[in-house]
C-alpha cells in the first residue's frame, strides 16, 4: 500500500481512466480531470476510456480493460494511474497489485492539490484533517484481510496490534487537529464579529473553480492575489478592505473554488475556511460564461452553498469572461423591485467593472437616503463629519454664509452622525419637507 503522504512531485507520467456509465449522474467531466491532473503536476501520457452499465466489483473497469491498462503502464512507463471516479479500498488495492503501478481516485487527487496549495496555518490544518478522515476509512478497510483472521492460529497479536496502533495514532492526530482548528476558528470568528460591529459589509466571491474569482478580486481591490488558469489556484481565503461609492468601506473575500461532487470530507473540513462566505452580506457568484457546462457549474456551486449553509444570502451572479463570447456587451440584469441580480463582465480586460460596482452599491445601499441641510457657520464640526463620511454630494452657500449641503448616504450612518450631534442634522434639514432621518424607536 502506498504512503498516503506521498505527494505528486511534478513531472509524473500519468494515465487517466474515465468510465462512461449508463446512469449519467455517475459520470464526471473528463476535461476537468485533465485540469486536475495538470494542476497536481502530472504529465498526461494516455487516456483510457470505456463504457459500462455498472462498476466491476473487483477492478471497477473489468478484467479485460485492466489487462489493457496493465500493458499501457508497462509500455509507457507510467508512474500513476488516476481514475475519474471513486474507488473502494479493495478496488484500489486490486488494481495496484494487478498493474504494478500507483492508483489513485479523484478524491485523493483533489486532496493532493489542496495539500500543495495550502499556505496559511488554518488551510494546512484543514487539508490534513480531510486527508486523515479519508485515510481512516481506507486504513480500517484495508486491514480487513487481517481482521477476518484475527484470533486464528499464527495470526494472533501482530496484525491486530498494528491495526489498533494505526487506528489510535489516526484518532489522536485527528483530535489534536480539531482542537487546533477550534482555536483558529475562534480567532477568525472574533475578526468577523469586529467587522460586523463596525458595520463593514462583507462581500464574498464564490464560484466554480477557475471561473476567474481571483482575477476579479484583484481588479476590484487592486491586489495581486495569485491567479492562474488552473483548478484551485486559490485555497486560503484572502480579505481586502476597499471603499465603494455610496456604500463606503467593504471587505471583499476571495475563497476556494467549488467543484462538482466535492468530497464530503473537504466540505466539512473547509466549513470554517468558508466562514466569510457564510457570514457575507452579499455573494458575488462568479461564473465562467464561456464554459459549455456553465449551467451544471452553477448548480454545483448552489449545492455546495447549501451544504455549508450559505444559500440564503443575497447574491449577484457575475457572468465573467464575456470577452471570449462574440457579440456580448457588459450589462446589468434587474430582477424583482428593479434590484440588480446579474452583471456580465470581463475581469481580465476590465469590461463592465464599473457596472458591477453600481450593482453592488444598489444592493448594499437599500437604505440610502437623499436630503438637503442648511448649516450655520457655527456648525463647522458637523459639516466636517459629513465630509469625512463622504456623504456630501454638493455644497452651496446662502447669502449669509450658511452651507447648503446635498447629502446622499446610508441612513444608519447618517443617523449615527445625527445622534452624535444631538439631532442637529435633523433640525437643519430643509428638503424634503417633514423628512425623518430615523424613527425614534431606532435610536
Structural notes for this entry:
The structure is a single chain. With 443 residues, this protein is an alpha/beta fold. It has 4 domains: 12-104, 3-Layer(aba) Sandwich (Rossmann fold); 118-186; 199-364, 3-Layer(aba) Sandwich (Rossmann fold), CATH 3.40.50.300; 368-442, Alpha-Beta Plaits. 41% of the residues lie in helices and 21% in strands. It is built from 15 helices and 15 strands. It has helices spanning 30-39, 63-76, 89-99, 106-117, 121-142, 144-147, 158-197, 213-221, 264-269, 275-279, 294-307, 353-364, 380-388, 411-420, 424-427, and strands spanning 12-21, 42-52, 80-83, 102-104, 202-207, 238-244, 248-254, 282-288, 315-320, 331-334, 340-344, 368-375, 392-397, 403-410, 429-431. The strands form 3 sheets. It has a 7-stranded mixed sheet with strand order 6-7-5-8-9-11-10, with helices on both faces. A 4-stranded parallel sheet has the order 2-1-3-4, sandwiched between helices. Helix 3 (89-99) links the parallel strand 3 (80-83) and strand 4 (102-104). Helix 4 runs antiparallel to helix 5 and helix 5 runs antiparallel to helix 7. It starts with 11 loop residues before the first strand and ends in a 12-residue tail after the last strand. The relative contact order is 0.08.
**Which strand order does the major sheet show?**
6-7-5-8-9-11-10
Largest sheet: 7 strands, mixed
Number of domains: 4
Q: Would you identify the CATH architecture of the largest domain?
A: 3-Layer(aba) Sandwich
How many individual β-strands? Answer: 15
Structural shape: elongated
| Class inferred from helices and paired strands | alpha/beta
- Global mean pLDDT: 81
Uncertain runs are 1-10, 141-160, 439-443
Helix fraction, binned, reads 40-55%
> Helix-strand pattern, N to C?
EHEHEHEHHHHEHEEHHEHEEEHEHEEHHE
CATH topology call of the largest domain: Rossmann fold
Number of helices: 15
| Strand content bin | 15-25%
Terminal Cα separation, in Å? 67 Å
The CATH class designation of the largest domain is: Alpha Beta
What is the CATH superfamily label of the largest domain?
P-loop containing nucleotide triphosphate hydrolases
Radius of gyration: 28 Å
Amino acid at each position: 500500500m502506498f504512503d498516503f503522504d506521498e505527494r505528486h512531485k511534478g513531472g509524473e507520467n500519468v494515465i487517466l481512466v474515465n468510465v462512461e456509465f449508463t446512469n449519467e449522474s455517475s459520470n464526471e467531466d473528463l476535461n476537468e480531470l485533465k485540469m486536475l491532473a495538470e494542476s497536481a503536476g502530472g504529465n498526461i501520457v494516455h487516456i483510457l476510456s470505456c463504457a459500462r452499465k455498472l462498476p466491476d466489483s473487483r477492478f471497477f473497469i473489468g478484467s479485460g480493460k485492466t489487462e489493457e491498462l496493465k500493458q499501457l503502464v508497462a509500455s509507457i512507463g507510467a508512474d500513476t494511474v488516476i481514475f475519474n471516479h471513486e474507488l473502494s479500498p479493495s478496488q484500489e488495492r486490486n488494481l495496484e497489485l494487478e498493474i504494478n503501478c500507483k492508483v489513485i481516485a479523484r478524491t485523493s487527487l483533489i486532496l493532493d492539490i489542496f495539500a500543495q496549495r495550502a499556505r496559511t496555518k488554518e488551510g494546512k490544518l484543514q487539508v490534513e484533517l480531510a486527508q486523515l478522515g479519508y485515510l481512516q476509512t481506507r486504513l480500517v478497510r484495508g486491514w480487513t484481510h487481517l481482521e477476518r483472521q484475527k484470533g486464528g492460529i499464527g495470526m494472533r497479536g501482530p496484525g491486530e496490534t498494528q491495526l489498533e496502533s494505526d487506528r489510535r495514532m489516526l484518532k489522536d492526530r485527528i483530535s489534536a487537529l480539531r482542537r487546533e482548528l477550534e482555536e483558529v476558528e475562534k480567532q477568525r470568528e472574533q475578526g468577523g464579529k469586529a467587522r460586523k460591529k463596525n458595520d463593514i459589509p462583507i462581500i464574498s466571491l464564490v464560484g466554480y473553480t477557475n471561473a476567474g474569482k481571483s482575477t476579479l478580486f484583484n481588479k476590484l481591490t487592486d491586489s495581486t492575489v495569485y491567479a492562474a488558469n488552473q483548478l484551485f489556484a486559490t485555497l486560503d481565503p484572502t480579505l481586502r478592505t476597499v471603499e465603494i461609492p455610496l456604500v463606503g468601506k467593504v471587505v471583499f473575500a476571495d475563497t476556494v473554488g467549488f467543484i462538482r461532487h466535492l468530497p464530503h470530507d473537504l466540505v466539512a473540513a473547509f466549513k470554517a475556511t468558508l466562514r466569510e462566505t457564510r457570514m457575507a452580506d452579499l455573494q458575488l457568484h462568479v461564473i465562467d460564461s464561456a464554459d459549455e457546462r456553465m449551467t451544471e457549474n452553477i448548480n454545483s456551486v448552489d449545492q455546495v452553498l447549501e451544504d455549508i449553509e450559505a444559500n440564503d444570502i443575497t447574491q449577484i451572479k457575475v457572468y465573467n469572461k464575456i470577452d471570449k463570447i462574440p457579440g456580448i456587451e457588459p450589462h446589468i440584469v434587474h430582477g424583482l423591485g428593479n434590484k440588480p441580480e446579474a452583471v456580465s463582465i470581463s475581469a481580465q480586460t476590465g469590461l463592465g467593472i464599473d457596472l458591477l460596482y453600481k450593482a453592488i452599491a444598489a444592493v448594499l445601499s437599500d437604505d440610502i437616503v437623499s436630503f438637503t441641510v442648511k448649516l450655520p457657520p457655527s456648525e463647522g464640526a458637523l459639516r466636517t463629519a459629513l465630509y469625512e463620511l463622504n456623504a456630501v454630494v454638493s455644497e452651496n452657500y446662502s447669502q449669509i454664509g450658511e452651507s447648503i449641503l446635498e447629502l446622499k448616504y446610508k441612513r444608519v450612518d447618517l443617523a449615527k452622525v445625527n445622534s452624535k450631534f444631538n439631532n442637529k442634522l435633523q433640525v437643519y434639514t430643509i428638503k424634503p419637507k417633514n423628512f425623518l432621518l430615523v424613527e425614534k424607536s431606532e435610536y
